[in-house]
């Protein structure tokens, strides 16, 4: 079953077509990967899906409903959350506060509720703290809850971004290079975390990643982009041996030799 | 060193703290009351509020003690000497600037939107009251209903705040699409435009009386009691200020406060967390502007005369200096910054100037005319600012994040199942 579908998606920047007529259906409850060489348009693809850029052409549907031209903050409340390639945490806020910001759309307290602080508002604040704490436990950062976010290590910052994205209670989670800058041990932990999110929380995951070991181990489906166009799609085994993919990554001569490892 | 440590531990002892603090307040208050030349004592008495912040009493105790100081000790202690009204005037001005700085702190400190035209909202508040509390409004509303009586002042505090907030939104709508330096320039322009409009709105219909300004503004009136002296306005200002501080504290650690800070830290990420950028920024503008507008009303009533020269760019810059000096995003810092700048300008530097002038007149020292103290006042002020900027670049009291008790959270959260994901159906307080 498809949860997120893009059809003939096009995004141009002046003369450059960053995403060029991509069609893809992301299956529900699975992990899909979007791979491709640098500059292939992967992050632009994410930015178009999350509404940061408006597509020039094409259709994006979440659960059968179009999300083209929907404002980014409303796309979040429709159920798409994301992390960023260049980490974008709220640096001077605490780790717990970062996750609590992620709960924004689920908190009902308005301006007057805040000022009057009725029992109901107080209870909501308390619950959101607890929930944020449980999310931190989920990604293994609970001992750092009062730290300032930008004082965390690189790997911890990436995990905090995931916790913050989970706080929006998404149906689809977009991870933009979640393993970038991580050491091998952190990557192994991350693979475990992503698997748990898919299984225990039943969230559909779409990830961009350059670490092929991670991609091949995690993905159920892979979409390969090059110069903005889709050059291949399929299960990891097919992609590994696909000559066009090897060519895009390593050049023509390598394509005649064989397999990406 | 050992001696120092001993004292430190002694000072952390609560009863010791309490007795030293009480002694300090009593001594300064009595000196303000009985001494003729009591400026230093008065400043120390005000400083007792700062000292209170650094004590280790419980929060509720601090608030109570602060309330007693503000509403009883300070007004009473200053009433002893000839300088009563001038002290109260300084304290009142402090209060007005603190409220404005706290408003600007929401915009600049929390939401990270650099606003160089903040005084415009103050002007809007002031003119809102001034126009209707003088015969001026008869020029465009028929029926000779104006001036409104001084008892309307209390309502106008709210109206002034509301009108300023409205203008905050009106300004924000077109302006908030630009960021950073551009925003600073546009708001600077807005500040000047408002001033110039007030300066020129005597034609074709005379609304603001132009550069002549509005005089004989009705003083506030509470059940027949007229407010004309600074020591009376002091209570109005402190009253509003308490509400303002209370509001800011609540907002800071709420969903709204977190959204403001998130936008300041990273707009794109904030948006991706479901925060509507424009609406959240507009709220910051509106709330900040409303504080300024309310104090504008009080200012107009206190001065009984206003004209556009009270609302120049320099005023906006001064308020911004208060925020930056105190510590952007730090409520106690901004309060301290605003109080310090106001006191420095109104009391310390003027006193110093008077004193030096006197010495020169007596022939004790001779200062060349080019270096006369009245000319040096701004220079000294600037030098102090530079020093603070060098030695405390993040402000006098740096903004702190609120820490959460991890143990308590851990104990309480274990009663409920893992809430992550929409599919689990556990909604953590969301009514679906």
TrEMBL record, chain A:
Key words of the record: ATP-binding, Nucleotide-binding, Transport
Keyword match ATP-binding: yes
Sample GO molecular function, one term: ATP binding
Organism: Cohnella lupini
GO BP annotation list: D-alanine transmembrane transport; L-alanine transport; L-isoleucine import across plasma membrane; L-valine import across plasma membrane
Annotated ranges, domain ABC transporter: 4-252
Stored Pfam families: ABC_tran, BCA_ABC_TP_C
Signal sequence bounds: none
Protein name: Branched-chain amino acid transport system ATP-binding protein
TrEMBL record, chain B:
CC per GO annotation: plasma membrane
Keyword Transmembrane: yes
CDD domains: TM_PBP1_LivM_like
InterPro entries: ABC_transp_permease, LivM-like
Keywords per UniProt: Cell membrane, Membrane, Transmembrane, Transmembrane helix
Annotated GO MF terms: branched-chain amino acid transmembrane transporter activity
Topological category with respect to the lipid bilayer: Multi-pass membrane protein
Cellular location(s): Cell membrane
UniProt main location, coarse: membrane
Start and end residues of each stretch annotated as Disordered: 410-432
Domain of life: Bacteria
Residues that span the membrane, as ranges: 18-35, 40-57, 63-83, 95-114, 120-141, 153-176, 182-198, 233-251, 282-301, 313-346, 379-399
Protein name: Branched-chain amino acid transport system permease protein
Organism of provenance: Cohnella lupini
């Amino acid at each position: 079953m498809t949860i997120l579908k893009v059809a003939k998606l096009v995004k141009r920047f002046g003369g450059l077509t960053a995403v060029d007529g991509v069609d893809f259906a992301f299956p529900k409850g699975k992990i899909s990967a979007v791979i491709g060489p640098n500059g292939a348009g992967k992050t632009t693809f994410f930015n178009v899906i999350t509404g940061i850029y408006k597509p020039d052409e094409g259709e994006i549907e979440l659960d059968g409903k179009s999300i083209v031209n929907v404002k980014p903050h409303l796309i979040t409340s429709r159920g798409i959350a994301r992390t960023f390639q260049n980490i974008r945490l709220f640096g001077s806020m605490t780790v717990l506060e970062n996750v609590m910001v992620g709960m924004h759309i689920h908190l009902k307290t308005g301006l007057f509720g805040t000022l009057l602080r009725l029992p109901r508002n107080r209870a909501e604040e308390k619950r959101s703290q607890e929930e944020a704490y449980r999310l931190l436990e989920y990604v293994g950062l609970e001992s750092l809850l009062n730290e300032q976010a930008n004082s965390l290590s690189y790997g911890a910052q990436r995990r905090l971004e995931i916790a913050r994205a989970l706080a929006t209670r998404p149906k689809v989670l977009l991870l933009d290079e979640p393993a970038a800058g991580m050491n091998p041990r952190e990557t192994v932990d991350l693979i475990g975390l992503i698997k748990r999110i898919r299984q225990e929380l039943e969230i559909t995951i779409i990830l961009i990643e350059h670490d092929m070991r991670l991609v091949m181990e995690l993905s159920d489906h892979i979409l390969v982009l090059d110069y903005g166009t889709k050059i291949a799609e399929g299960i990891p085994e097919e992609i590994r041996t696909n000559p066009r993919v090897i060519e895009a990554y390593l050049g023509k001569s390598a394509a005649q030799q064989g397999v990406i490892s | 060193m050992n001696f120092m440590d001993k004292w430190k531990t002694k000072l952390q002892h609560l009863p010791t703290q309490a007795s030293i603090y009480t002694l300090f307040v009593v001594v300064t208050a009595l000196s303000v009351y009985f001494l003729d030349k009591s400026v230093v004592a008065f400043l120390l008495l005000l400083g007792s509020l700062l000292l209170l912040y650094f004590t280790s009493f419980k929060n509720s105790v601090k608030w109570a003690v602060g309330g007693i100081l503000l509403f009883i000790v300070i007004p009473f202690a200053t009433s002893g000497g000839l300088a009563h009204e001038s002290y109260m005037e300084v304290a009142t001005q402090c209060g007005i600037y603190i409220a404005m700085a706290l408003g600007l702190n929401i915009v600049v400190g929390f939401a990270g939107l650099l606003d160089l035209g903040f005084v415009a909202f103050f002007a809007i508040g002031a003119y809102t009251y001034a126009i209707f509390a003088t015969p001026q409004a008869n020029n465009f509303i028929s029926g000779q209903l104006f001036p409104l009586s001084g008892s309307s002042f209390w309502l106008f505090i709210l109206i002034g705040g509301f009108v300023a907030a409205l203008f905050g939104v009106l300004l924000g709508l077109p302006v908030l699409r630009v960021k950073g330096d551009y925003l600073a320039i546009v708001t600077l322009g807005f500040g000047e435009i408002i001033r110039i409009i007030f300066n020129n709105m005597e034609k074709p219909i005379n609304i603001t009386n132009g550069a002549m300004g509005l005089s004989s503004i009705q003083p506030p009136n509470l059940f027949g009691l007229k407010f004309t002296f600074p020591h009376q306005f002091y209570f109005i200002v402190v009253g509003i200020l308490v509400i303002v501080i209370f509001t800011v504290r609540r907002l800071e650690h709420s969903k709204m406060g977190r959204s403001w800070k998130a936008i300041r830290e990273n707009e794109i990420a904030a948006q991706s967390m479901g925060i509507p950028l424009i609406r959240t920024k507009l709220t910051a503008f509106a709330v900040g502007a409303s504080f300024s507008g309310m104090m504008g009303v009080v200012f107009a009533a206190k001065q009984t005369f206003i004209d556009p020269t009270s609302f120049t760019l320099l005023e906006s810059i001064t308020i911004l200096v208060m925020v930056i000096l105190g510590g952007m995003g730090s409520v106690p810092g901004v309060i301290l910054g605003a109080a310090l700048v106001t006191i420095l300008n109104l009391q310390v530097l003027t006193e110093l100037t008077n004193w030096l002038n006197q010495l020169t007149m007596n022939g004790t020292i001779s200062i060349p005319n080019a270096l006369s103290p009245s000319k040096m006042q701004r220079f000294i002020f600037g030098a102090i600012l530079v020093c603070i900027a060098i030695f405390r670049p993040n402000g006098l009291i740096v903004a702190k994040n609120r820490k959460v008790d991890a143990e308590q959270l851990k104990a309480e959260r274990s009663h409920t199942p893992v809430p992550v994901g929409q599919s689990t159906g556990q909604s953590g307080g969301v009514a679906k």
